[in-house]
Amino acid sequence: MDKLQQLKRNLKQIVDSDPNYPIFGIIKSIENDTCTVELSEEFEISDVRLKSTANGEDNLLIVPKMGSKVIMLSSDGTIDNLTVIKIDVASKIIFNENGLKVEIDSIEGKVIIKNNTSSLFDLFKDLTTILKQFKVYTNTGPSGLPLPDSIAAIEKLETDFKSLLK
């Protein structure tokens, strides 16, 4: 019996149903827009798609957390075309369309929001730079730099946005 037939037989024994029914597994590794899933002890399937087409483009990609449970379906009843359709825990969500990119990364605890011309991180960075050097003209000439308590508040804003945005 060849390896593929043995794999199909093992798969039917593990899930005890037609391969077109949902198949449950646990994420073992992530490889770009595919993953390796454990179906039972010491039985893993690689190249399981995380979205309908594993093409390297991240229009909408939800990356499961390592060790999380997933549900998969096959588009043609074979194990060669398994796609994750539901995950218990996401570690990253990426949306990328028409120059807009939004990425939520729970591992780093940070968010990216940007388009082709600017990013939210850069905007906040520019704002804090401007505020630290902010001066106004008065009837006696230009004002000095912000007072120490204002600088402290600006630096707190800078620290806070750097801990949230990337």
Q: Could you give a quick summary of the protein structure above?
A:
By secondary structure, the chain is an alpha+beta fold. The chain has helices at residues 3-15, 120-132, 148-164, and strands at 23-31, 34-40, 43-49, 60-64, 69-74, 82-87, 90-97, 100-105, 110-114, 137-138, 141-142. The chain has 2 domains: 3-111, Gp5 N-terminal domain (OB fold (Dihydrolipoamide Acetyltransferase, E2P)), CATH 2.40.50.230; 118-164.
How does this model look, in words?
This protein has 166 residues and is of the alpha+beta class. It has two domains: 3-111, OB fold (Dihydrolipoamide Acetyltransferase, E2P), CATH 2.40.50; 118-164. 26% of the residues lie in helices and 38% in strands. It has three helices and eleven strands, in the order αβββββββββαββα. It has a five-stranded antiparallel β-sheet with strand order 3-2-1-5-6, covered by helices on one side. α2 runs antiparallel to α3. The chain is elongated and about 95 Å long. It starts with a helix and ends with a helix.
List keywords for this structure.
single chain; 166 residues; alpha+beta; OB fold (Dihydrolipoamide Acetyltransferase, E2P); 5-stranded antiparallel sheet; 4-stranded antiparallel sheet; elongated
